């Protein structure tokens, strides 16, 4: 190799080395400190505990609704039973009276009417009266059977409703204990998180939040697009588990609130929100789609909203406000995406 070529290679190598030293490494590509990694783990564990807690609360509320419905069913069944009993008593008396009915003091059938009648005209009159009695008796019998059946059905419905109420009360009582335990565990984890947050270094705090995106987005005028605009309007709001309205949100609370502003109701938890809508691939994402994170549907612990241009908006962790960020900031355990509407 000539001296000129050697000199050129050395210059090029020096330039590459210099550029590599000068160019900043993206924040998300930097290695996080063990302290920050542990802090993120604590947040993920708390989110999972919060999902379990909220699911228990939803189950308790569902059982309470069953108890209320069962009470209404019992009341309605008892009312129907009482009305049927009154009707049964009335028609039973009518059937008894008609069964003992007589024409001019004697019981008749058509043959006896013929044998005792003094004329054809007399026979026809007697037969006509007997036909009326028979028709009335059949009608009364049908009504009596119907009343007896209605009373029996009402009694069974009341018994079934009472059984449902008892089972729901037992389940609600069990869930109350479960909720109390889950809430205590959740509060303990939140306390650990806030204590750990105070111990983060300035560098860790900066890495935790990352660069703030203040971009302007035009997601469209449909319900999904309007939900994006609503979610973006909450950038800067505080994060806390259980938050579902300004100025405090958790991840699923933000999604629920944003869609609710435009008349579309989402469930409260990210695991329940995952059950809504249809699946979409990453290549099909549109503004308003929801992205879920976890190892499975049963372990989903975070949800974000796609806003376009490879960006999301979400409420993620304690110490981080609601913000928009690149998709990869949503989490390393992306599970699936869903389109809630459209």
From TrEMBL:
Gene3D superfamilies named in the record: 6.10.250.3150, endopeptidase domain like (from Nostoc punctiforme)
Highest taxon of the lineage: Bacteria
An example Gene Ontology biological process: proteolysis
Residues making up the signal peptide according to the UniProt record: 1-29
GO molecular function: cysteine-type peptidase activity
Transmembrane intervals: none
Coiled-coil segments: 151-196
All residue ranges annotated as the NlpC/P60 domain in the record: 221-342
Classification via Pfam families: NLPC_P60
Keywords: Coiled coil, Hydrolase, Protease, Signal, Thiol protease
Assigned protein family: Belongs to the peptidase C40 family.
Protein name: Cell wall-associated hydrolase, NlpC family
Organism from which the protein derives: Kibdelosporangium aridum
């Amino acid at each position: 190799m000539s001296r000129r070529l050697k000199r050129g290679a050395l210059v090029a190598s020096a330039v590459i080395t210099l550029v590599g030293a000068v160019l900043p490494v993206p924040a998300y590509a930097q290695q996080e400190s063990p302290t920050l990694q542990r802090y993120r783990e604590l947040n993920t564990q708390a989110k999972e505990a919060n999902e379990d807690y909220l699911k228990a609360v939803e189950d308790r509320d569902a059982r309470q609704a069953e108890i209320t419905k069962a009470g209404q069913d019992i009341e309605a069944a008892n009312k129907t039973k009482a009305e049927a009993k009154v009707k049964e008593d009335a028609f039973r008396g009518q059937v008894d009276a008609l069964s003992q009915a007589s024409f001019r003091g004697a019981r008749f059938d058509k043959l006896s009417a013929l044998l005792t009648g003094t004329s054809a005209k007399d026979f026809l009159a007697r037969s006509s009266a007997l036909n009326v009695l028979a028709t009335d008796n059949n009608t009364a019998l049908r009504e009596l059977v119907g009343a007896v059946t209605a009373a029996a059905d009402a009694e069974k419905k009341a018994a079934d409703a009472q059984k449902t109420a008892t089972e729901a009360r037992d389940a609600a009582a069990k869930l109350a204990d479960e909720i109390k335990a889950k809430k205590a565990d959740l509060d303990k984890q939140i306390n650990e998180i806030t204590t750990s947050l105070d111990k983060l270094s300035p560098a860790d705090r900066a890495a935790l939040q990352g660069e703030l995106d203040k971009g302007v987005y035009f997601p469209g005028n449909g319900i999904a697009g309007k939900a994006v605009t609503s979610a973006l309007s909450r950038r800067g709001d505080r994060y806390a588990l259980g938050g579902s309205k300004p100025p405090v949100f958790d991840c699923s609370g933000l999604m629920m609130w944003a869609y609710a502003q435009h008349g579309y109701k989402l469930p409260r938890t990210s695991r329940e929100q995952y059950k809504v809508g249809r699946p979409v691939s990453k290549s099909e994402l549109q503004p308003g789609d929801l992205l879920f994170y976890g190892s499975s549907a049963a372990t989903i612990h975070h949800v974000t909203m796609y806003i376009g241009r490879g960006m999301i908006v979400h409420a993620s962790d304690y110490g981080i406000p609601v913000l928009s960020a690149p998709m990869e900031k949503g989490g390393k355990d992306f599970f699936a995406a869903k389109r809630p509407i459209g």
